[in-house]
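Propose amino acids for all 153 sites.
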């Protein structure tokens, strides 16, 4: 699936909670409670987000995460999946030894599936230890939820 990093516009399959996370992020960046990141675009931004997502995958693995979560990097309209389900997608031998797999450019989650909504700046802060994912959620900078159109937030 294409994303903004690929030069395409927003897919239109954005969760109703995305604006709340975007607003919380803008406020936190403005008041300095969330460190700003260097603005990048195109392939450079995609590679940075993929690297940060791989670091998030490592954190999840260290924390004993189980199951599957769709991760939406809001800035790039990028859906990715972190999962402990076996995947045979031609990945290298190293990634096959990891318990959790990261796949980028995946489909959005279906109803009833778990998802994480997060911006690049918050993702950076989480993987660099400036805040935990739980702190980011409490501050309104990320949202971990089950996709349910009847309960949008």
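Proposal:
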């Amino acid at each position: 699936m294409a994303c903004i990093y690929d030069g395409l516009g927003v897919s239109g399959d954005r969760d109703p909670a995305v604006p709340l996370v975007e607003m919380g992020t803008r406020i936190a960046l403005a008041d300095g409670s969330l460190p700003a990141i260097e603005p990048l675009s195109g392939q450079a931004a995609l590679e940075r987000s993929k690297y940060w997502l791989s670091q998030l995958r490592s954190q999840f693995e260290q924390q004993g995460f189980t199951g599957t979560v769709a991760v939406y990097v809001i800035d790039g309209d990028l859906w990715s999946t972190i999962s402990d389900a076996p995947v045979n997608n031609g990945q290298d031998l190293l990634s096959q030894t990891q318990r959790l797999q990261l796949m980028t450019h995946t489909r959005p989650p279906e109803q009833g599936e778990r998802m994480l909504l997060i911006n690049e700046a918050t993702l950076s802060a989480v993987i660099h230890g400036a805040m935990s994912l739980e702190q980011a959620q409490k501050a309104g900078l990320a949202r971990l939820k089950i996709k349910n159109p009847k309960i949008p937030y």
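The chain has a mean pLDDT of 87. The first helix runs from residue 18 to 31.
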